[in-house]
Amino acid sequence: MQNQISPLILSFGASDPVAATGLFADLASFAAMGCHGLPIITAVLTGDTAQIDSIHPIDADLVDEQARTILEDMTVVTFKVGQVGSVDNATTIAEIVSDYPEMPLILDPFNTTITEQIADAEDLTLSIRELLIPQATLLLISAVELSRLAETWKENTEAEDLTADVMTLIDSGCEFVLVTGTPSANGEIANTLFNESGIVRRDIWPRIPGSFAGAGSTLSAAIAALMANGLEVPEAVLEAQEYTQAAISHSQQFGMGKFIPDRYFWAKENE
């Protein structure tokens, strides 16, 4: 029997039957990095490898009960928040994490495909911006999603300015913002990490051909796991990108749709 327990991460997110995104992506990535995930279901998805057909939010009282019961029993070291499912859930999760202000919070709540299925998507986006982002240690957001989020505070006549948009979020209280898919030359992928001082690091990766589901979930989960293991944000972001690139390069096509990153690629390398 081991006395040294694995780092515990409480993760809020959706149940995806394909296990490409959401909680199942989190659990696999956490386990691959020696952490134990505690899944709090916020919504149930229906769909396949080609598309997500619908999202069914879980009642906020049940989300609250799931999380607080676990937090009273176990010593959690990191929060990870993915798809929250509803405005009520965003409010509930914000109240829960506010009771643990010293605990790192990795926030990855935006998924365009899922958001399109939510009736009150605009209200949900606004609630995430006002309630969760100010509490986040790190927000993961794509350049496209950032542009859409910025529409909640900018006038239609204002020009797009990625850095200014990021600084608006940081000024609200978020410590770090990792923007994926920032502009780069030669068709490569650039991910840029910001804090209150500006750019912390900018990493460029070769674009891997194909259509993938779950890459963003893998990246944010890996960051959460590495921070739970004691890494500082800049180091965790770099190592998580390396892990995610490898997982994507080993992706598998289980159905007729998108490829799914293999979070356990390392276990097969010596076979």
TrEMBL record:
GO biological process: thiamine biosynthetic process
InterPro entries referenced in this protein's UniProt entry, alphabetically: HMP/HMP-P_kinase_dom, PM/HMP-P_kinase-1, Ribokinase-like
Enzyme Commission identifier(s): 2.7.1.49
Keywords: Kinase, Transferase
Matches recorded under Pfam families: Phos_pyr_kin
Domain Pyridoxamine kinase/Phosphomethylpyrimidine kinase: from-to ranges: 16-258
One GO cellular component term: cytosol
Pathway membership: Cofactor biosynthesis; thiamine diphosphate biosynthesis
GO molecular function, one term: phosphomethylpyrimidine kinase activity
Designated name of the protein: hydroxymethylpyrimidine kinase
Biological source species: Undibacterium jejuense
